[in-house]
Amino acid sequence: MKKVLKIFTILIIIWIFYITYSYNNFKNNILIKENKIIEINAGETIKDLARKLDINYYFLRQYLKNKNFKLLKWRFEIKQNSNIENILNTLEKPLPEKQVNITILEWWNIYDIDNYLNKKWYINKWEYINYVQNPQKIKQLTQFYDFLNPNFKSLEGYLYPDTYTLKYPIKINELVIKQLNNFEKKVYNTLLKNKNLTNNEIYNLIILASIVEKEEKNKDNKKIVAWILKKRLENNWPIWADITVCYPHKLTQEECKMVISKFIKEKSDYNTRTMIWLPKTPIWNPSFETIEATLNNQETKYWYYLHNIKTGVIYFAETNKEHEANKKYMY
């Protein structure tokens, strides 16, 4: 029995020595001998990575145990003669694409756009925001676009939502110029240029349209909502658009959803519940459809509206009493 136990102990020691030796080789030796391109897809794990690299999964898991490593969904080129540190460094640098398509949605503000570009690894965080809020950049762009004003604090509202194709690595100025060109072509030249509107009047229209963009999705109803908001302004009413309250806190729309109730009673240049007039700047970048609906609003007898939270159906009211009665349709 003692002899068997001794043999077993020796085998355990040999096994531990072998594992330790192999793990040290894993840490210190070349693991990839030839160039290899791998692609990490959504939902794949460290185990999938080890399989694609043809390296020991258990050693890899142990090596990453105390490291702050995040597996990114992208394509990577692992260079020949790479050790584990080389591999991990490479997995932080996605392969560039020759061209990329960037889709900017109608209800995105500059914080949404920056967040989107950063998550796609196209820019560093706040890089887009800093550019479109840079006074010198705005002043320079004013020379080329009649609808801009050198006193603007931001290009918010004019960064037209659409899909843009850009060379990689992308240049923010190229994206911004494409957005402004698109606004000029689709909105300014076709809708605003011949209306004899001043830059400030255009700006107020874009601010209001940015609110209408989020307040109502239906094209026909947008014209009614725009009329109601205009009528409130003309009669020195607050316009009561809750979606404006988050903007000074530099939040994306998803972040705003979580905390909007926190800011409802806050006094700011954007809270249209606690002040009478439009927000200081646009709060999103509205589409042509919404800007056109805001410009050519539909006059009605209504002063109030609310939506069913689940269906999105809108209910209009002429009086506050009717509005209160409509609240039964909210849920």
Instruction: Note the quaternary state here.
Output: single chain
Structural class, judged by helices and strands? mainly alpha
Percent range of helical residues? 40-55%
Can you write the helix and strand succession as a string?
A: HEHHEHEHHHEHHHHHEEH
Q: What is the overall pLDDT average?
A: 91
Computed over alpha carbons, the radius of gyration is 28 Å
With strands numbered from the N-terminus, the spatial order across the biggest sheet is 1-2
Poorly predicted residue ranges = none
- The number of distinct helices, counting runs of at least 4 residues, comes to 13
**What's the β-strand tally?**
6
How many structural domains does the protein architecture include?
2
Q: How much strand?
A: 5-15%
Terminal residue distance: 77 Å
Largest sheet: 2 strands, antiparallel
From the spread of the alpha carbons, the general shape counts as elongated
Which characteristics define this entry?
Dna Ligase, domain 1; two-stranded antiparallel sheet; 2 domains; mainly alpha; elongated; 331 residues; two-stranded antiparallel ribbon; 8% strand
Question: Could you explain the architecture of this structure?
Answer:
By secondary structure, this protein is mainly α. It folds into 2 domains: 24-90, 2-Layer Sandwich (Dna Ligase, domain 1), CATH 3.30.1490; 101-300, no CATH class. Helices cover 45% and strands 8% of the residues. The chain contains 13 helices and 6 strands. The chain has helices at 2-28, 46-53, 57-63, 84-90, 110-119, 127-132, 135-142, 172-192, 199-215, 219-234, 253-259, 288-295, 320-326; strands spanning 36-39, 75-78, 99-103, 163-167, 304-307, 314-317. Strands 1-2 form a two-stranded antiparallel ribbon. Strand 5 and strand 6 form a beta hairpin. Helix 9 packs across helix 10 and helix 10 (219-234) crosses helix 12 (288-295). The radius of gyration is 28 Å and the shape is elongated. The mean pLDDT is 91.
